[in-house]
């Protein structure tokens, strides 16, 4: 059985144990769907909450009951604790699974619910408050003898104090929200000016995302690896005696170094970097921290590790993290099930010696983002076509969307978590490559091309990675896959074959006895294909279901079933199998083909049409030199100028907030507004 899909033989033995009859899930998207799946297996009824724009969301349809808690903004719906408390009472839910932002902001409400007999799926309020506050968690970590990053352990009051502290620590520094997570409210500063700007944006993002604008500053560890340890612990407690006896496990590490804007993009388990001794030391420190706060659930302790394998505590996440599936794959545990059992008071079923590393798992976060803009700026729209690559062996997809779903400006742009499992890393990466090629997403921009390039890059394959991987590998930004000469010929041959296959299909009359007046005996075509700045003569001849294509004086044999109605086309080129997607085409010969993960725009014309095309006037490019255009959809939260102002190049014009991240829009040249 595939460990990526939790061992039912082991898990079902415990599903008959009494836990809860009804559980409310105060979350949305893929994580809400993930919790619902395990609840269904355990026989627990579920209640979903949703905003008005999420009324038709997948998690709403999956749950047994669903209640609207407000309008689209998270502060008025998914973070509206008063509304959520009313739903708990109305539906008589016995337990509630909350997202971490609610937990940190509404500690008193959680305590009140506990007193009324409602169980929280997760650690107690003390652990949430302590670990949700980066300032307090750092002090606790120090007391628990956990390695920590040098920095200022108090609250930074204003920009001037931020500059003073940064100078004392020494640049570069990391400015981050005390109640933050997910890369929000974080900025790296290399000088005083960046510190002031970072303080402003980090505090605004923190207030918007977490309702808490407190910031801390610490030394920025340059070129580190981001590694985290999954812990699972339980404390037996008696309300009257207040005596606690605890057990805790560490469930090995996850490598999370591939990031953009401090948000993870690719994760894997285990790490290629750690040796058994370092792994054990990190695991033991993670458990020591969990015991120090009397932690009782599944949680994640994050570390930064330098090139000498020195590691430093970063933060502890008191929730089920996005990348938890890779841990489930290599351990065979269902972490949601473990959290529910622990919340009910059952002891852990495993000892540390039972936790092994079985195989290798890789997770890619598939986002509705344009990877060609700062490695991923948000994209919105409706998923006009959506097909997950579940037909590929050992693939798991955790998603909260379906064909027809809307990707809006209000929430995180994640489409899904794509996970592959193998007996070793090579096998897991090969399956990921195949899964990405077979993933159909239409209607929004997505980062499939970036993900595919990362996992096949020689540095990544060798395990030579750090949190600076993307800017180091792509210093001028991501440009897509760079075709080799052979790959270019394969793409040209495939595109030309597709064109001819379509021409032949359009000549056929299906379902009618009509007989053509003159039977076409044409078997060869001379075409002109434009790709980028190059124009290539291509000769195609038909041989049964195959095409012989001549490109650059070389002949290639292209074979396929040529099912042009399918979103996926499996094509064999001289014995090499490729899965491609034709995204668009028009009568002018323009076509877009997704090949090796990247979308290429081509124009395919007959030789005669190509010769005549030089007489066609070219559309003049729009002059945008005097226009400031937002590179993404979002809300204008601040305008720094007014009509008539003179601005200089690089000056801030306005601030755009998209999916809880704030972005400063600057003038590209000196001029008057």
UniProtKB/TrEMBL annotation:
It holds the Pfam family CPSase_L_D2. GO terms for biological process: lipid catabolic process. CDD domains: biotinyl_domain. Pathway: Metabolic intermediate metabolism; propanoyl-CoA degradation; succinyl-CoA from propanoyl-CoA: step 1/3. Residues 19-475 form the Biotin carboxylation domain. GO terms for cellular component: mitochondrial matrix. Keywords: ATP-binding, Biotin, Ligase, Lipid degradation, Lipid metabolism, Magnesium, Manganese, Metal-binding, Nucleotide-binding, Signal, Transit peptide. It catalyses: propanoyl-CoA + hydrogencarbonate + ATP = (S)-methylmalonyl-CoA + ADP + phosphate + H(+); butanoyl-CoA + hydrogencarbonate + ATP = (2S)-ethylmalonyl-CoA + ADP + phosphate + H(+). PANTHER family: CARBOXYLASE:PYRUVATE/ACETYL-COA/PROPIONYL-COA CARBOXYLASE, METHYLCROTONOYL-COA CARBOXYLASE SUBUNIT ALPHA, MITOCHONDRIAL-RELATED. The lineage of its organism: Eukaryota, Metazoa, Chordata, Craniata, Vertebrata. Residues 1-18 form the signal peptide. Its cofactor is biotin. Coiled coil: none annotated. Its EC number is 6.4.1.3. It is found in: Mitochondrion matrix. This is Propionyl-CoA carboxylase alpha chain, mitochondrial. The keyword Ligase applies. The gene is PCCA_0. Residues 619-673 form the Lipoyl-binding domain. GO terms for molecular function: ATP binding; metal ion binding; propionyl-CoA carboxylase activity. The keyword DNA-binding does not apply. Residues 138-344 form the ATP-grasp domain.
